[in-house]
Amino acid sequence: DVKVTQSSRYLVKRTGEKVFLECVQDMDHENMFWYRQDPGLGLRLIYFSYDVKMKEKGDIPEGYSVSREKKERFSLILESASTNQTSMYLCASSLIGVSNSPLHFGNGTRLTVT
Amino acid sequence: AQSVTQPDIHITVSEGASLELRCNYSYGATPYLFWYVQSPGQGLQLLLKYFSGDTLVQGIKGFEAEFKRSQSSFNLRKPSVHWSDAAEYFCAVARGGSSNTGKLIFGQGTTLQVKP
Fold it and tell me: Alpha-carbon distance B55 to B58, whole Å?
């Protein structure tokens, strides 16, 4: 079965800390995504990667960076965590250029920055 | 700019009753449209999608959705709701009409509560 695994279900970090959110997929998908989910705002795209070492900014990239050194792994980095980055973070993957390929989501990481 | 609006933040229906969740999109060309469901503590799961062709699409778990270009709508329906359908539902449109389905614009979500 298709699987997207996010390494942490819950994280609590302090303001100013560097935070790493990890995501691994086992489907050999080219595309990987990081979304942020907030009540009343739905999901918003932070960053997108369509290949190893390739990345593209989404709608809300400020304060975030990403790393994709291997095809199966996509990391979201908060360089200096702030309280307004308290949120649910969802990783997803999909096949590239295939119109019927759905997004496969992980179960999310709920990050609290204090 | 493209956008998706789900007018209902929260809906409560009785078990066995019919359900319709509304979704309106803004896009000039033919959109690629999706409905996802998120059960508590879970990631999102694809219910159904519309790319072209028949405007009434069938999905998993007994859901269907109808694309109406004249109304810029893609409403989700189910004839008889089960308690296990309680979840949050998201409508989404593919950015720029691209078939690269990962770059989606999501609506705000509708939380469905099911009364026994």
Answer: 10
Biggest CA-to-CA distance, chain B: 42
pLDDT in tens, A40-86: 899 999 999 988 988 999 999 999 999 999 999 999 999 999 999 99
Region of A81 please: left (phi>0), alpha (psi -120 to 50) or beta: beta
Q: Can you tell me whether residue A36 is helix, strand or coil?
A: strand
Task: Give the residue from B114, B115, B62, B60 showing the smallest Cα distance to B88.
Answer: B114
**Is A99's CB within 8 Å of B103's CB?**
no
pLDDT above 80 for B41 = yes
pLDDT at B30: 77
Of B42, B49, B109, the CB nearest to A102: B49
Please tell me the distance from the alpha carbon of residue B102 to that of residue A23, in angstroms, as a whole number: 16
Q: Is A77 left (phi over 0), alpha (psi -120 to 50) or beta?
A: beta
